[in-house]
User: Which sequence fits this backbone?
């Protein structure tokens, strides 16, 4: 690389930039900035603008931003009808609420299952610790879609669980598990369990044994020690892990689409159907904007608070 | 707390929970019966069917191309973004760049996908409304998927690169500057080699994320550019199908070998560094 940075091409580029008054620093800042402005920020402005349009039968299927009136003047066409529609229709309200409920319940289960596992791994001696960590991470690298698909074969009427239980004589009738909220909970907990375990592990592995010994010496039982020492100290890990499960769960589309029933309402799925099945682009955009404010804004706010606390 | 048996049992149950669906997926990929969960004898017919399925092979090729280019671009933009944020304390738009580089991490995929698609459609219309640029906008396909994946993967690369850049010894860069190296040379001769392990992890993560994405690709892709997850999804949406089991088995085998090899190599490197 040194030959490259010294050669005439570089010097030539530097001279041209000098003539134009662009400093190297500006250029380095501009590259990622421009990419993200064009492909991250502008799309949101377009999204917001189309959420104010009317659905029409044309290509593209939404009304233009302005129209030339008979007098030649420009009229801006913008309507809040899509948002009014979202407010009045119970379907959307229920979808937002049930997404939050499903995400909260799944996060709680992931925490209950993940905490003991993370604790055990963090307290294990070295060769075992690495092997267990690898076993926890390994499924994360394999396709998410295929892991959800695996549960379809497990949970369905003639699936592995029903066949096993019926073969053992535990049940006479197959259990209905597919296409229920239960299957969605399983899918979310299963998919995002590694995201819960890893931050918890990273936190618990730093726990000082001396603190636990001190609590024991002072007469605390292991249970009391756990609730008064370990649990409070691992709170940052709990928060981080819960966020990593809750955030992707709330906008989830694939899991409710494959494992959930027709009545499993989740906002990601409603948006998808609105766009691909109803082909109502303006309403889909309005659903996305509301989702942005209800779900993403609080998370961003929480993160900025956390960042500020870390800086202090 | 009954520490004796409770924790090992929890770990055992957790691992059974994590692995039993995958094991059953693999076992039934060798099943002769079309009924995916009823055993009908050993057979490799679904693997033969898979390798004769032009649609799946084509989609796998599209996915690999998209993942390769997205991972390279995302590593470039993510690293530059991280470098700028860590090394330059003050510049116009710093907060904006930080927000745009973090937001994709928490953005639901449906929103990212929809907003990018709407932007592509609006830009295409704008292009087509002028005679000069009519038809110049690339039609939706591999290019638009690569752009979408690059944008969200760059955020993940940036997280990894940022933490490495913060940890690295800045006196190395200062020393190079004191010896007369220009900023470009310092970046390529000092900074990049030092943070290379982070860049490799970032590239691998971006590659995996791109290969795995269904939702964003479904929004921004066009006819003839279906990615592997899109084809798998349209198949499994109608129910279980044994050739998907065969495909899953191959993917799981490849990934396991890659991850375990990487793990062993990293352990060996760490041990060598200690001696």
Assistant:
């Amino acid at each position: 690389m040194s030959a490259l940075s010294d050669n005439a091409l570089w010097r030539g580029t530097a001279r041209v930039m000098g003539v134009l008054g662009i400093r190297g620093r500006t250029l380095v800042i501009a590259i990622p900035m421009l990419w993200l402005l064009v492909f991250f920020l502008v799309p949101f402005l377009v999204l917001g603008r189309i959420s104010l349009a009317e659905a029409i039968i044309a290509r593209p299927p939404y009304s233009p931003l302005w129209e030339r009136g008979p007098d030649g003047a420009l009229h801006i066409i913008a309507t809040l009808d899509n948002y009014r529609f979202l407010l009045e229709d119970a379907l959307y309200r229920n979808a937002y609420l049930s997404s939050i409920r499903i995400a909260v319940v799944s996060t709680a289960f992931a925490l209950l299952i993940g905490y003991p596992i993370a604790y055990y791994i963090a307290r294990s001696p070295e060769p075992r610790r690495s092997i267990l960590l690898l076993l926890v991470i390994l499924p994360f690298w394999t396709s998410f879609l295929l892991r959800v698909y695996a549960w379809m074969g497990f949970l369905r009427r003639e699936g592995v669980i029903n066949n096993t239980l019926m073969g053992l004589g535990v049940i006479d009738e197959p259990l209905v598990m597919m296409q229920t909220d239960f299957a969605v909970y399983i899918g979310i907990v299963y998919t995002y369990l590694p995201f819960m375990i890893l931050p918890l592990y990273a936190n618990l592995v730093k726990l000082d044994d001396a603190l636990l010994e001190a609590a024991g010496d002072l007469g605390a039982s292991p249970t009391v020690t756990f609730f008064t020492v370990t649990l409070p100290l691992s709170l940052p890990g709990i928060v981080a892990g819960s966020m990593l499960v809750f955030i992707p769960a709330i906008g989830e589309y694939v899991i409710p689409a494959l494992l959930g029933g027709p009545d499993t309402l989740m906002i990601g799925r409603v948006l998808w159907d609105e766009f691909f099945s109803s082909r109502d682009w303006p309403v889909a955009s309005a659903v996305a904007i509301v989702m942005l404010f209800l779900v993403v804004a609080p998370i961003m706010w929480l993160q900025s608070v956390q960042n500020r606390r870390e800086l202090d | 707390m009954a520490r004796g048996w409770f924790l090992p049992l929890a770990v055992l149950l957790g691992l059974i929970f994590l692995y039993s669906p995958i094991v059953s997926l693999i076992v039934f990929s060798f099943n002769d019966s079309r009924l995916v969960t009823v055993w009908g004898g050993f057979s490799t017919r679904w693997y033969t069917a898979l390798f004769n399925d032009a649609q799946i092979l084509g989609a796998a090729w599209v996915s690999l191309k998209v993942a390769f280019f997205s991972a390279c671009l995302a590593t470039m933009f993510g690293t530059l973004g991280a470098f700028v944020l860590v090394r330059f304390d003050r510049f116009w738009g710093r907060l904006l760049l930080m927000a745009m580089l973090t937001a994709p991490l928490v953005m639901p995929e449906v929103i990212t996908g929809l907003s990018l698609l709407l932007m592509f459609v609006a830009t295409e219309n704008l292009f087509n409304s002028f005679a000069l640029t009519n038809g110049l906008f690339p039609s939706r396909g591999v290019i638009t998927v690569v752009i979408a994946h690059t944008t969200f993967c760059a955020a993940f690369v940036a997280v990894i690169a940022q933490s490495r850049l913060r940890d690295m010894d800045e006196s190395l860069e200062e020393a190079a500057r004191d010896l007369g190296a220009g900023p470009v040379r310092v970046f390529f001769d000092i900074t990049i080699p030092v943070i290379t392990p982070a860049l490799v992890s970032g590239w691998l993560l971006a590659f995996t994320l791109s290969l795995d994405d269904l939702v964003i690709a479904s929004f921004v892709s066009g006819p003839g550019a279906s990615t592997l997850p899109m084809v798998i999804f349209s198949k499994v949406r109608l129910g279980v199908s044994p050739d998907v089991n065969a495909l899953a088995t191959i993917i799981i085998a490849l990934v396991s070998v890659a991850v375990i090899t990487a793990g062993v190599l990293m352990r060996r490197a760490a041990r060598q560094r200690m001696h």
Observations:
- Chain A has 15 helices and two strands.
- Chain A touches chain B through 89 residues (CB under 8 Å).
